[in-house]
Amino acid sequence: MPGRVLSEGLRIADPPRRVASYEGGEAGAPVAVDAAADPAILERLRSLGYLDAESPKGDRNLAAVLFQQERYAEAERAFAALVERAPDDGALRASWAGALGALGRYDEALAELDDAVRLAPLNPEGYHNRGVIEERLGHPAAAITAYRQALRYSPRYAPARAALTRLGADAAAPTPGDAATQRALELADQASALARRGDYAGAMRALDESERAAPRLALVQQYRANVAFLMGDRDAAAAALRRALALEPDNALFQENLRRLDGPAADRLPR
Q1: Quick one: which of 144, 207, 212 has its CA closest to 172?
Q2: Within 13 A of 57's CA, how many CA atoms are on the CB side?
Q3: Which of 169, 202, 217, 228 could, after both became Cys, cross-link 164 (CB 3.0–4.6 A)?
Q4: CB within 8 A of 127, min separation 6: which ones?
């Protein structure tokens, strides 16, 4: 699952596990071989074992190279075989959907993306690939929503940012422009800066003031959960996440963090 782990507990948005994403290449570390390499050379390297072709990582790399070389039919078959071997891997399903979409098989691609997002809800490629398909189907509003979802869980994900710029849309949905909300956002930023300096009490005071200014701003509860966790108060962190989810029930990041905090006692990290 993508995302850094904050002090071995809550996850925060970060670059995802590597996976093919059309109109965006791959996120994360580069593939092991050059996408422009001659296919015959790739096969020679594979036969010699340099690509570790029998490993899942090697097979993923080769499938991604096929995709990057626009050999979409071959890439689709390669990803389909990988998904058959690992049906619960949401990242692979996002890649397979990318290949299906590149072939114009949009209904199949969208069905795979439903599974990809269900299995790996924090992985931005699933949302990004959906955005590309919605664009190609002539649904710009739906595409913008999907691209924003990708950035919701990976704010630095460049392909989605580039797509939104191309569509003339902001990276985030417009927030209320009233003075109280803007003040709440400023206070939340102050709280984040205080927490990074270790002033947790000051951060909580800033968040209290922020919540009074905008009681329905889920970001405030997310920040409160992060600060509470850093303070070692897992119960307060979980309570803040529940309040955040009441405001944004579909937020997979909140859901994942709460799952980690509320898991069975045997699975929970020590306080």
Answers
A1: 144
A2: 11
A3: 169
A4: 117, 146, 147, 149, 150, 152, 153, 160
- Which pLDDT tens digits describe the chain residue by residue (271 residues)? 333 333 333 433 333 333 444 444 433 333 344 445 556 555 554 554 444 444 456 788 888 888 988 899 999 999 999 999 999 999 999 999 999 999 999 999 999 999 999 898 888 999 999 999 999 999 999 999 999 988 888 878 889 999 999 999 887 766 556 788 888 888 988 998 898 888 999 999 999 999 999 898 888 998 999 899 988 899 999 999 999 999 989 888 888 889 888 875 434 433 3
Determine the Cα–Cα distance for residues 191 and 5; give it in Å rounded to an integer: 20
- Whether the CB-CB separation of 33 and 42 falls below 8 Å is answered with yes
**With b meaning 16 or more CB within 10 Å and e meaning fewer, what string describes 51-83?**
bebeeeebbbbbbbbbbbbebbebbbebbeebb
- Domains in the chain with CATH codes: 4-166 (1.25.40.10), 179-267 (1.25.40.10)
Those residues whose C-beta lies under 8 Å from the C-beta of residue 54, and which sit 6 or more positions away, are: none
d(CA 185, CA 220): 8
Question: Contact, 16 vs 28, CB < 8 A?
Answer: yes
Count of positions (residues) in the chain:
271
